[in-house]
UniProtKB/TrEMBL annotation:
Protein CPL1-like domain sequence ranges: 240-303
Classification via PANTHER family: APPLE DOMAIN-CONTAINING PROTEIN, PROTEIN, PUTATIVE-RELATED
Protein name (Swiss-Prot/TrEMBL): Protein CPL1-like domain-containing protein
Keyword Cytoplasm: no
InterPro entries in UniProt: CPL1-like (IPR048661), PriA/CPL1_fungi (IPR038955)
Domain of life assignment: Eukaryota
Pfam families: CPL1-like (PF21671)
Keywords: Signal
Signal peptide: 1-20
Length: 314
């Protein structure tokens, strides 16, 4: 029987999967610091990880050459990523080789990583000083905000700035003057640049995304595209929260307490962490189904489910 790693590698190679857009290295990430994942697996290299995640319609891919023991080396996420979890690079601006560190790739943007500032003052071109700037919990939102500009200067927030987890993003048309250091940290300004040929493509994508958004909002007036309006509890009927039930760990496949203002219809979601025998730190939600990676002591993983291990006394 072939191992899952060999099967995945062979399948990806045979299909000759290629990214529709060039994936962009964002920085080093410690996955234990944040988010839920739509998918995780083991693959042979970063390219296969990026292709694997992109093929499943994810926004981000995470690949590590040094994962923790029993931790997969490839994770995918369809959720927007904050700056929480960023960690210093090791030895160079694009190397993440610390234990548990993952290379984080944005699979949807046309911007490319142009390095980071290290220690010195960033000086903007006078023509860019009055350009738009935004605060966002999502780097992808920053890229969309500055889609018609040549560069984005993205600075992760810290406790000292009072913006922990928030990106401060400045749109630029000229390269700033900054000190390019040997490594990047979790508080360095990161520079992302737009190839000239990509600006028109980005502008067309923004227009199409806006049209798609308007159509989806007409069908679901309560939540952004890709999110379901879910009741917050079985006892509260006048409040809701917007969840991506295709990847929501505790409301997988539907709304755990029912869909907002929909009586008797709509799929009831599953709390993947509450499944008997499942290690809550090794389970995910993928396409509306719980994906179990590991079971608790006393249980055995078989065909994606945890079964109590029977002990036979002599």
């Amino acid at each position: 029987m072939r191992s899952p790693l060999l099967f995945i590698t062979a399948a990806l190679s045979a299909a000759s999967i290629a990214l529709a857009q060039s994936s962009t290295f964002v920085g080093c990430y410690l996955l234990s610091a944040s988010l839920s994942f739509s998918l995780f697996t083991n693959v042979a290299n970063a390219g296969l990880c990026r292709n694997y995640c992109f093929g499943q319609n994810n926004l981000y891919a995470f690949y590590s050459t040094t994962p923790f023991p029993l931790q997969p080396n490839c994770f995918c996420s369809a959720l927007h990523i904050t700056s929480l979890g960023l960690s210093p690079t090791v030895g160079s601006q694009t190397t993440c080789s610390g234990l548990g560190q993952f290379h984080m790739y944005d699979l949807q943007t046309t911007f490319v990583n142009a390095g980071c500032n290290n220690g010195g003052t960033v000086t903007l071109n006078p023509a860019d000083v009055s350009n738009p700037q935004t605060l966002s919990g999502s780097l992808q939102d920053c890229f969309s905000f500055c889609a018609n500009y040549l560069h984005v200067l993205a600075t992760p927030g810290t406790l000292l700035t009072g913006l922990l987890g928030i990106w401060t993003c400045k749109c630029l048309n000229n390269l700033p003057t900054m000190s390019q250091g040997a490594t990047c940290t979790s508080s360095n300004p990161y520079l992302f640049s737009h190839p000239l040929s990509a600006t028109g493509q980005a502008r067309r994508r923004v227009i199409q995304d806006r049209r798609n958004h308007q159509q989806l909002m007409a069908a679901n007036p309560y939540c952004p595209p890709g999110r379901a309006a879910c009741n917050v509890s079985p006892d509260i009927t006048d409040g809701y929260e917007c969840l991506n039930v295709a990847h929501e760990l505790e409301s997988c496949g539907g709304c755990k307490y029912g869909h907002y203002r929909i009586n008797g219809t709509g799929t009831i979601g599953i709390d993947c962490t509450a499944i008997e025998g499942v290690d809550r730190h090794a389970v995910g939600c993928f396409r509306g189904e719980c994906a179990v990676l590991r079971c608790m002591s006393g249980y055995t993983l078989e065909n994606g489910a945890c079964y109590r291990t029977l002990s036979i006394e002599a």
